[in-house]
Structure formats: C-alpha cells, structure tokens
UniProtKB/TrEMBL annotation:
CDD domains according to UniProt: Rieske
Protein name (Swiss-Prot/TrEMBL): Rieske (2Fe-2S) protein
Domain Rieske: 130-203
Region described as Disordered: 1-26, 77-100
GO molecular function: 2 iron, 2 sulfur cluster binding; metal ion binding
Source organism: Bradyrhizobium frederickii
Essential cofactor(s): [2Fe-2S] cluster
Lineage: Bacteria, Pseudomonadati, Pseudomonadota, Alphaproteobacteria, Hyphomicrobiales
C-alpha cells in the first residue's frame, strides 16, 4: 500500500562521466534509504493507527459482548441494529466497541468488520448455522496483502454480488463463509460470530481464522 512512495529507476548507463555517475549513485542510495524509512514508518502506522493516542483496549481484537458500531458515515460511532441492514446487501462497515468502557476498538485496522444481511435460504449449511436472521460478520481486511475490502459488486465468475478487494480483484462469497471465488487471495475472510438481542448486534466470540494478509497491516 505504501509502496507507491518507493521509487526505482532502471536506466543507468546513458551518462558516461564518472562524477555524474557518482552523483547519480549517491542520489539513488539516498532515495532508496528514504523510501525504506517511509515504507517502514507507514507499515507501523497502519498496524496501529494512532496507537500513541488510543485509549487502552482500542487495538485489542473484538471481544465477546462488544457491540458493533458504524465505522463511517452519518451514524459513525452509533450502534448497528438489525433494522439498519438492508436485505441482500450492501454490507455496512463496523468497529467493535467495549460496552463497559465505551472504547471503540479502532486502534487497529485489523478490527474493521463487514456486516451483511442475506436471505438465509441462499447460505450454505455451515454459514447458515452461524448467521443470526441472515446477518453475518466478516473481517474487512483482505487475506491477500491486507487491503480493505471495499466493494460489493457482481462477481466476475457468477451472477451474484460478492465482497471485492479492489487492490488485486480478489472476490469473497459471504453466502459460503466468505470463501475466495476469484483472484489471488489465498484464503477466506475470517468470520466473526454474532448474537442478536432486542434488535442489537454484539460479538459472540473470536474471529474464526487469521485476520489480514501476508504483509504487515
Ligand atoms: S490485497 Fe486484496 S486482492 Fe490483493
């Protein structure tokens, strides 16, 4: 993600003067060093965005009993209820929130969640068993290289809508446990068990599986 700041230059032999070559080599060395520093710094930031300012618990993974709140839009920070979820999608983006301390666990981007409501008849057996009234939650972080999964679009390989990561076009089917149906992602998105009580959604347990991709994120 932060690799755009890392510049490479492959043409090196057109200028023949030795001083120029030395200057060029020194400039290249500085560029590479600067790029490495920026890349390292950004990867650290993305793993714990604002970690120094976050209250305790903000970067902990979702805990049993956490409520789910909007992570964006007009209702940012407000609890998500079943009534907020349009039948058949698109998904809402959410953070878990500790109901005792009111800490929103937005200190790690790995905590962002996709919540979607689907027709239970469309779900495979295992996914239906985990759904509450057709509502499912998955990690919003792609299992390929850790980009956020942002799109809900018709699949390249079918006629249904799927979660899509626009970084390298991986697609995940939420009706089948968010398994990969297209693209380079090596594994499904982690699922997050939910409970529904009085219309409010909360976390019932840990993520099922590894969250995120091969790169730090
Ligand atoms: S990071 Fe999602 S497809 Fe590559």
């Amino acid at each position: 993600m932060s690799r755009a700041s890392f510049t490479t230059n492959s043409s090196s032999s057109e200028s023949s003067s030795e001083p120029d070559a030395e200057v060029y080599a020194e400039q290249t060395r500085r560029t590479v060093l600067l790029g490495a520093l920026v890349t390292t710094a950004c990867l650290g930031c993305s793993a714990h965005a604002g970690a120094n300012e976050d209250p305790p618990g903000a970067d902990e993974r979702p805990q049993k009993g956490d409520v789910l709140v909007f992570s964006e839009g007009d209702k940012e920070g407000k609890p998500i209820t079943a009534a907020d979820l349009p039948a058949g999608g698109p998904p809402l983006h959410a953070w878990p929130k500790d109901p005792n301390t009111s800490v929103v666990r937005s200190g790690s981007r790995l905590n962002e969640i996709l919540i979607i409501r689907l027709d239970p008849a469309e779900l495979d057996e295992k996914t239906r068993a985990r759904a509450v009234d057709g509502i499912l939650a998955y990690s919003a972080i792609c299992s390929h290289a850790g980009c956020p999964v942002t799109a809900w679009v018709k699949s390249d390989v079918g006629d249904k809508e799927v979660f899509k990561c626009m970084c390298h076009n991986s697609e995940f089917d939420p009706r089948a446990g968010a398994q990969v149906v297209f693209g380079p992602a090596p594994r499904r998105l982690a699922a997050l068990p939910l409970v529904l009580a009085d219309g409010s959604l909360s976390v019932a347990g840990n993520f099922t599986g590894k969250v995120g991709g091969a790169q730090p994120g």
